[in-house]
C-alpha cells in the first residue's frame, strides 16, 4: 500500500477534529470577533439572572417579539414571534412555525443563574469596629476563589410598602466595592494550610466588609452596624427589615475582558451558562418562520438542581407550550400538550469542561473537550455510572451530527472528566421527562464556576452557528 492509498483510507475512516480558526476565512474571522464584542456587552449587563432576563426581553422586543400574556388578555393571535417572562427570573421565546405544534418544536434550553454569594435575610452585623454582611453561597463554588477579590452587589429589594428597588453597587469606577478577607500566609499554617481544602475555608466565614465609620459616640451599641444601615437608608430609603424580602447577590466586580495577546479568548464571570443563553438568544432572533416552531428557554436555579418555580423542574415549559397552542388556534387539551412536548427536539445548552493544560490528569484525553475546537456535544453527564444523566440516544446524536456537518459547523464531543473523578448535571433530564429527545450541547470553558471563566471566541461563535442550524432544521 502506497502513501496515497493510505492517506485515502485515513481521510475516509478517521474522525476529524479541526481547530475552528483553521476552518474560517478572513470574513468569518472578522464576523467572529464582532459577534464576541456584543457577547461581552451582554455579560457586563447580565451579572444576575434578573438582569439577564431583562436583557433577553429587551433584545426580543427590539426584534418584534410580543408578550404572549398580552395576546391572551386581548384574545388576539396574530403574532408569530412571542415571549413570556415568569417571576422575573426565567424567560421563553418562540418563533411560531407553519406545522401544528403537536408535531413538535425545536427547543434550546439554557440557564441564566450562576454561582455567587447571596446576602442572608439578616445580613448586617458588626465585629472589631467594622460593619460586615453575612452571605450564603449559591451553587458549586470553590470558596477560596471568592476571597480577597473586589465584589459588587446586584439585587432587588421589596420594601415594606411593596415598592421595588433594584440596586447595583460596585460596577461604576466611582462606586465602592466589597470583599471577603483572606488570612495572610504567615498565620495560615494551623488554621488552613494543614487542612483538607474542603475544610480550610468555611462557608460561614464568607462575610463581606461593608464599612468602618461609626454612627454615634463610643457609648452607642452597634454603631458600626448603624453606620452601614444609615447610609443605606439615606441612599435607598430601606430599613433592616427590608433585607428579609430582598435578593441581593455579591458577584465579581468588573467587565468581561479579552484574554491572550491575540485577544482570542474571553474571561468573565457568569459564562456558565450565559454563554449559551446569549448564543441561543441570537440564534433565535435570527430565525425566520419555518415549518417547525423554534423555542428558546432561559431557566433559573440550574446551579442548585433546577429547583423552585423558576427552575427547569417547574411547569414553565408546559405553560408556555400550552399558551402557544392557544394563540395558534390549536387544540389545547392534555393530549395535544403531551404530543407537542414528546415530539419536540431539544438541545440542553450548557457548557462542558475544557481540558486544562495544567490539570490533564482529571480528564480522559480521548473523550475530553478542548478550547477552540467548536461546539461540544455531550451525550451524557451525571456522576460515576452516568447517575443523574438523561444520556441521549444514538439516533438523536446522529441527527445533530448530520445537521452540524451539513452546515459546516465545527464540533467536538466531550465528557465531564474521568469516570470516577467527579461529574455534574444540566437541565437535560428535566426536559427528557416529557419524552422529547435531548442532547447537551454547548462550548467548553476553562475555570468553570470560578469568578473568571475563560472561553474561546471561536467556540462562542461556532455555538451560535450550531444553534442557528438546529433551529432551521425542519425534519
From TrEMBL:
Its EC number is 3.4.11.-. Keywords: Aminopeptidase, Hydrolase, Metal-binding, Metalloprotease, Protease, Zinc. It comes from the Bacteria. Its cofactor is Zn(2+). One of its GO terms (cellular component) is cytoplasm. One of its GO terms (molecular function) is aminopeptidase activity. The keyword Secreted does not apply. The keyword Hydrolase applies. InterPro entries: Peptidase_M18 (IPR001948), Peptidase_M18_dom2 (IPR023358). Signal peptide: none annotated. GO terms for biological process: proteolysis. It holds the Pfam family Peptidase_M18. Belongs to the peptidase M18 family. This is M18 family aminopeptidase. The lineage of its organism: Bacteria, Pseudomonadati, Thermodesulfobacteriota, Desulfobacteria, Desulfobacterales. The gene is apeA.
Amino acid at each position: 500500500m502506497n502513501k496515497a492509498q493510505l492517506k485515502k483510507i485515513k481521510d475516509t475512516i478517521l474522525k476529524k477534529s479541526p481547530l475552528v480558526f483553521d476552518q474560517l476565512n478572513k470574513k468569518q474571522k472578522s464576523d467572529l470577533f464582532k459577534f464576541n464584542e456584543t457577547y461581552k456587552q451582554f455579560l457586563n449587563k447580565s451579572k444576575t439572572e434578573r438582569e439577564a432576563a431583562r436583557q433577553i426581553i429587551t433584545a426580543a422586543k427590539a426584534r418584534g417579539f410580543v408578550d404572549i400574556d398580552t395576546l391572551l388578555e386581548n384574545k388576539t393571535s396574530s403574532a408569530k414571534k412571542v415571549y413570556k417572562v415568569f417571576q422575573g427570573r426565567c424567560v421563553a421565546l418562540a418563533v411560531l412555525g407553519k406545522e401544528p405544534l403537536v408535531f413538535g418544536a425545536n427547543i434550546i434550553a439554557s440557564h441564566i443563574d450562576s454561582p455567587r454569594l447571596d446576602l442572608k435575610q439578616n445580613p448586617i452585623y458588626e465585629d472589631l469596629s467594622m460593619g460586615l454582611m453575612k452571605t450564603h453561597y449559591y451553587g458549586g463554588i470553590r470558596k477560596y476563589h471568592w476571597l480577597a477579590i473586589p465584589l459588587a452587589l446586584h439585587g432587588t429589594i421589596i420594601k415594606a410598602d411593596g415598592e421595588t428597588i433594584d440596586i447595583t453597587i460596585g460596577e461604576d469606577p466611582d462606586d465602592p466595592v466589597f470583599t471577603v478577607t483572606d488570612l495572610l500566609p504567615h498565620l495560615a499554617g494551623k488554621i488552613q494550610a494543614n487542612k483538607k481544602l474542603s475544610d480550610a475555608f468555611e462557608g460561614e466565614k464568607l462575610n463581606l466588609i461593608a464599612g468602618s465609620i461609626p454612627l454615634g459616640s463610643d457609648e452607642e451599641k452597634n454603631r458600626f452596624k448603624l453606620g452601614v444601615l444609615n447610609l443605606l437608608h439615606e441612599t435607598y430609603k430601606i430599613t433592616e427589615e427590608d433585607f428579609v424580602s430582598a435578593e441581593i447577590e455579591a458577584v465579581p466586580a468588573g467587565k468581561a475582558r479579552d484574554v491572550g495577546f491575540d485577544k482570542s479568548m474571553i474571561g468573565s464571570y457568569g459564562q456558565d451558562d450565559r454563554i449559551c443563553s446569549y448564543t441561543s438568544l441570537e440564534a433565535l432572533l435570527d430565525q425566520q418562520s419555518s415549518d417547525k416552531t423554534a423555542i428558546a428557554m432561559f431557566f433559573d436555579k440550574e446551579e442548585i438542581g433546577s429547583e423552585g418555580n423558576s427552575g427547569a423542574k417547574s411547569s414553565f415549559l408546559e405553560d408556555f407550550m400550552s399558551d402557544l397552542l392557544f394563540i395558534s388556534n390549536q387544540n389545547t387539551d392534555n393530549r395535544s400538550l403531551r404530543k407537542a412536548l414528546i415530539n419536540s427536539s431539544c438541545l440542553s445548552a450548557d457548557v462542558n469542561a475544557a481540558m486544562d493544560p495544567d490539570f490533564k490528569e482529571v480528564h480522559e484525553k480521548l473523550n475530553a473537550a478542548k478550547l477552540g475546537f467548536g461546539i461540544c456535544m455531550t451525550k451524557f453527564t451525571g456522576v460515576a455510572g452516568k447517575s443523574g444523566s438523561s444520556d441521549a440516544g444514538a439516533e438523536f446524536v446522529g441527527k445533530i451530527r448530520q445537521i452540524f456537518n451539513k452546515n459546516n459547523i465545527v464540533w467536538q464531543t466531550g465528557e465531564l472528566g474521568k469516570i470516577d473523578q467527579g461529574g455534574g448535571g444540566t437541565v437535560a433530564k428535566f426536559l427528557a421527562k416529557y419524552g422529547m429527545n435531548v442532547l447537551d450541547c454547548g462550548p467548553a470553558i476553562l475555570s468553570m464556576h470560578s469568578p473568571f471563566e475563560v472561553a474561546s471566541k471561536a467556540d462562542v461563535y461556532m455555538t451560535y452557528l450550531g444553534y442557528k442550524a438546529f433551529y432551521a432544521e425542519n425534519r
